[in-house]
Specification:
Blueprint lengths: L11 H13 L12 H8 L3 H13 L3 E4 L3 E4 L9 H8 L3 H24 L2 H19 L3 H18 L3 H15 L7 H4 L2 H19 L3 H45 L14 H8 L2
Antiparallel strand pairs: 1-2
Helix pairs in contact: 1-3, 2-3, 5-7, 5-8, 5-10, 5-11, 6-7, 6-10, 7-8, 10-11
Length: 282
């Protein structure tokens, strides 16, 4: 059961503490809807006034949001590490993309190593389900779905690490990735060679975690992000070169329409004999 009965000290604070823990551990995610008030009070075994006090406290602190006639939802607290002013700065400075990928390489390696050590049977089942979906999307060449599952896979690995600070830090990073702040994942997944390599790398991380091999998991995660860094740079360079080449082609086509053909002089009216004689005797 998600919510447990409050056996002692049936106060709003006890309810708040339990919901806080579920948010902190990543069990409750932004957008998740809490059960109806009557059902939730029954789950906690507290009175409805006590539950209302707890929800009011959580809402005041920005952890839940109540929609009139729509219920109570977990607030969108993920990504607060990168508020919009900072995200805008990062978005406008290309070096930040390199810094992001460098940070991801180190943090993803730490998360994968912890996941290999700490993953429970339920964690492995969740990760296996995502891996199966990723494999199906790869086989069907559904690159959009595969790119979405890429992020879900990394989120699941961070959850398997069972470190709340690491979990929320990486979720904030993945949020920026989903929003395309750093780079467009389509640049990678629209190329068959990249898709094959990325899938093999995700498989290597998955296999190491399920085998309970922290060293192999860290190595596989670091190698994956090293490849992503190089591949993103290469794809961005390709796009930039293509754009320059297209501009050159468009301008060249316009010039060819207006300039005379090479090797042919402009036609000049023939000089008459009288004109020639007059020019020579001037």
């Amino acid at each position: 059961m998600l919510f447990r009965e409050v056996k002692e000290n049936r106060t709003a604070d006890a309810v708040v503490a339990q919901i806080e823990a579920l948010i902190l551990d990543g069990v409750l995610r932004p957008g998740d809807r809490l059960p109806a008030e009557r059902e939730l009070a029954k789950s906690f075994d507290v009175s409805r006034p006590t539950l209302r006090d707890a929800l009011t406290d959580l809402e005041t602190r920005g952890l839940v949001a109540t929609r009139h006639g729509g219920g109570t939802f977990i607030a969108d607290v993920i990504g607060e590490v990168f508020r919009e002013p900072v995200a805008a700065l990062i978005r406008n400075h290309p070096k930040a993309a390199a810094d992001y990928l460098e940070f991801r390489r180190e943090m993803d390696a730490v998360a994968a190593g912890m996941a290999a050590e700490r993953a429970t049977a339920a964690d492995r089942a969740l990760l296996s389900g995502i891996m199966a979906a990723l494999e199906a999307a790869h086989a069907e060449k559904d690159f959009r779905r595969e790119a979405e599952l890429d992020v879900e896979f990394h989120k699941a690995v961070s959850e398997c690490a069972h470190n709340s600070v690491l979990l929320h830090t990486l979720r904030a990073c993945y949020r920026l990735l989903e929003e395309g702040v750093f780079y467009n994942r389509g640049l990678l997944y629209t190329h068959a060679d990249s898709r094959d390599r990325l899938f093999a790398q995700h498989r290597a991380i998955y296999d190491a975690i399920l085998a309970g091999d922290p060293a192999a998991a860290r190595e596989a995660a670091a190698a994956h992000m090293t490849y992503v860094t190089a591949a993103v740079r290469d794809r961005q360079d390709q796009v930039a070169r293509a754009e320059v080449a297209e501009m050159r082609l468009a301008l060249a086509a316009g010039r060819l329409k207006t300039e005379p053909r090479r090797g042919r002089r402009p036609s000049i009216p023939a000089e008459t004999a009288a004109d020639h004689h007059e020019r020579l005797t001037r």
